[in-house]
Amino acid sequence: MEKIKAFLKRKDIEISVKRYLIDALGAMAQGLFCSLLIGTIINTIGTQFGIGFLTTPVATVGGVEYTVGGLATAMSGPAMAIAIGYALKCPPLVLFSLATVGFASNALGGAGGPLAVLFIAIIAAEVGKAISKETPIDILITPLVTIGVGVALAAWWAPALGAAAMKVGTLIMWATDLQPFWMGIFVSVVVGIALTLPISSAAICAALSLTGLAGGAAVAGCCAQMVGFAVMSFRENKWGGLVSQGIGTSMLQMGNIVKNPRIWIAPIVTSAITGPIATCVFHLKMDGPPVSSGMGTCGFVGQIGVYTGWTSDVASGAMSAITAMDWIGLFLISFILPAILAPLINHFCRKAGWVKDGDLTLN
């Protein structure tokens, strides 16, 4: 047993929740952002502003034409796997081999591909790390083992993992359509909490393919956390804190939450209010990329995702036009209501002595 522990330590293989469900999941979201999300944004800009270079196919692969954004989107599997490998501190040969593993896992996993990539890339990465530099022909053995294990697992597990993720996501979306009030609260609160915790709400939404009304509730929850913390901590953190939390991440408050969990009351209650307003009043839907559901106001990706869904729905005939009420709902849910409700609720928390000056100060 001691020899095994020493080997794992030498190879930097750490079997832990933090390494796999925090570091790897967070990195996977960055991989998604740099491929699927950026590709979607590029396509949207090209379409909306009539930029020929962005709407004209620039490559044809296997008879399929790709725009610039399409190429970025097609690389989401490799991007996720390489990001996971980077988080797991893989040596170069393992890291580069994960491109194939990610492509296979994402392709075979279907719409639930991100979940398959998460599981399979982690295992392939750790096996690759274990074999790396253990033979004189490392340049051959390490890629062969990493890719072999990853592709074999992708063929074996990815379809089932993808189908399971899709079923869970479909169940959540079905329940939200059936009970928009209660599920609006549930999805908004849970995804909002996930966004502030050191895990990735974006990766979770992507893995579950969370769209529709459930996706809209997720956007509401994320915005409640980000804008809520940004505005209610303005007296302590000024403009820098407003920007870093409002369009960056509310995860910056995690250290303060550990010290005083009651500072989290206002954003969580706000998400419980804005979630059902999004689902029941404005019928806010995320018909863009599922990963956008878990991004909130980070780089305004959540709002861009909603808008991308609108344009797609108009093009397909699912929507007749983007109305003023659609825009009002998006701005109220994303910015205005969180900016009003969270500070108001936090004011009562201060009155009760639960939150004090300095509790929200960022280091």
**Cα end-to-end separation:** 42 Å
User: Gyration radius, to the nearest Å?
Assistant: 22 Å
Which stretches of 5+ consecutive residues score pLDDT under 50?
none
Sheet bearing the most strands, described? 2 strands, antiparallel
Strand order of the largest sheet: 1-2
Total tally of structural domains: 2
SSE pattern, N- to C-terminal: HHHEEHHHHHHHHHHHHH
Number of strands: 2
Global shape:
globular
Kindly describe this structure.
By secondary structure, this protein is mainly α. It has two domains: 2-165, no CATH class; 179-351, no CATH class. The chain has 16 helices and two strands. It has helices at 2-10, 17-49, 52-55, 68-74, 76-87, 92-109, 113-131, 138-178, 180-196, 201-207, 212-232, 234-246, 254-259, 265-281, 301-316, 324-351; strands at 59-61, 64-66. It has a two-stranded antiparallel sheet. The chain is globular, with a radius of gyration of 22 Å. The model has no long low-confidence stretch (mean pLDDT 92).
For the structure shown, list the relevant keywords.
2 strands, mainly alpha, 363 residues, globular, single chain, two-stranded antiparallel sheet, 74% helix, 2% strand, 2 domains
How are the secondary structure elements laid out?
Blueprint: H1 2-10, H2 17-49, H3 52-55, E1 59-61, E2 64-66, H4 68-74, H5 76-87, H6 92-109, H7 113-131, H8 138-178, H9 180-196, H10 201-207, H11 212-232, H12 234-246, H13 254-259, H14 265-281, H15 301-316, H16 324-351
Helix pairs in contact: 2-4, 2-5, 2-10, 2-15, 5-6, 5-7, 6-7, 6-8, 7-8, 7-10, 8-9, 8-11, 9-10, 9-11, 9-14, 11-12, 11-14, 11-16, 14-16
